[in-house]
Amino acid sequence: KMNLVVLVTGANSGIGLALCERLLSQGTRGLQLCLACRNMRRAEAARSVLLTSHPTAQVALLHLDTSSISSVVRAAQEVRLRYDRLDYLYLNAGIMPNPQFDVTAFFKGLFSSKIIPMLATGVGILTQKDGVTSDGLQEVFATNLFGHFLLIRELEPLLCHAGQTSQLIWTSSSNAHRSAFNLEDIQHQRGSQPYSSSKYASDLLSLALNTHYNKQGLYSSVTCPGFVMTSLTYNILPSFPAFVWTLLMPVFWLIRLVTNTFTLTPQNGSEALFWLFKQKPESLDPYAKYHSLTSGLGNNYTQPRKMDIDLETSESLYETLLQLESEVRKKLREQPQEAILQDLNGIDRDYTALH
């Protein structure tokens, strides 16, 4: 009998993989863990790493690209075939486009009072250029927010069960700013901060999901991992040689003595995600973002902080997303059957090559 089913998107590296390791470390009996990833070769490598440490664990793989509508729908169908319930859905997958980097502003910021928010959020030194998916959606919006929203909608039968509670747990960011978000432009087509916009939208959406689903036993929470050195972070300064990061690390360690948001490692950054796994969802604050924090001595803890969100805006976003969902489903139904079959065959070939 399965006791708990946990699905983690973007689980093959960084914070997602660190979370999976921590979940398995607290006991594998009765835990079914599903790694939902875009790149199946990396997913297989991550699974091997986890099974090396936890040989008796039940770790399954799922091909999921949250930037692709058809991929989300197919993945959800596969999940519904495999499981009859879903206890935890970690909405962790995300992208941050390679930004335009202002070198002068960066070095000025290093010697100013703004150094901590600059390094933690990129404010003042970064602007980002977004792409467009094959579905015609803005890439950051589709990957970080809308693909996850559609996944939740598709998995409602597993998430909403009489007599049980399920949790949605989002990986958000301290870079989720109200100023970057516009209800009239939820995909952020006209702005230069798509990542910040998508993360603020996930904060809003979490509140709306609680409004609509709590009575059905489904609860949503938002986390912030802090400033973590992952591939997303390294992509902030793609032209910097590796030795620059090596030189900066002692600076980051010193900063952590005065600010607890510099978690630095994926293990530390996953603290809030793991902490929420052990909480009763009914006791959580839907207006709070749960932050992973690390003290100067290296001790990890979780702290809730009120989000800059309101019920009216969250409801408006939710209604807009429902409308967009209706539109993309209509397009998907009109998609030629041959194209869908080609898609499926391509995924099959990719997966077969792993074995």
UniProtKB/TrEMBL annotation:
Keywords: Endoplasmic reticulum, Glycoprotein, Lipid biosynthesis, Lipid metabolism, Membrane, NAD, NADP, Oxidoreductase, Steroid biosynthesis, Transmembrane, Transmembrane helix. It is a single-pass membrane protein. It catalyses: 5alpha-cholest-8-en-3-one + NADPH + H(+) = 5alpha-cholest-8-en-3beta-ol + NADP(+); 5alpha-androstane-3beta,17beta-diol + NADP(+) = 17beta-hydroxy-5alpha-androstan-3-one + NADPH + H(+); 4alpha-methyl-5alpha-cholest-7-en-3beta-ol + NADP(+) = 4alpha-methyl-5alpha-cholest-7-en-3-one + NADPH + H(+); zymosterone + NADPH + H(+) = zymosterol + NADP(+). Pathway: Steroid biosynthesis; zymosterol biosynthesis; zymosterol from lanosterol: step 5/6; Steroid biosynthesis; estrogen biosynthesis. The chain crosses the membrane at residues 236-255. Its main location: endoplasmic reticulum. It comes from the Eukaryota. It is found in: Endoplasmic reticulum membrane. GO terms for biological process: cholesterol biosynthetic process; estrogen biosynthetic process. One of its GO terms (molecular function) is 5-alpha-androstane-3-beta,17-beta-diol dehydrogenase (NADP+) activity. InterPro entries: 3KSR/17beta-HSD, NAD(P)-bd_dom_sf, SDR_fam. The keyword Endoplasmic reticulum applies. Its EC number is 1.1.1.210, 1.1.1.270, 1.1.1.62. The keyword Transmembrane applies. GO terms for cellular component: endoplasmic reticulum membrane. PANTHER family: 3-KETO-STEROID REDUCTASE (PTHR44442), 3-KETO-STEROID REDUCTASE_17-BETA-HYDROXYSTEROID DEHYDROGENASE 7 (PTHR44442:SF1). Belongs to the short-chain dehydrogenases/reductases (SDR) family. ERG27 subfamily. Binds to the short form of prolactin receptor. This is 3-keto-steroid reductase/17-beta-hydroxysteroid dehydrogenase 7. The lineage of its organism: Eukaryota, Metazoa, Chordata, Craniata, Vertebrata.
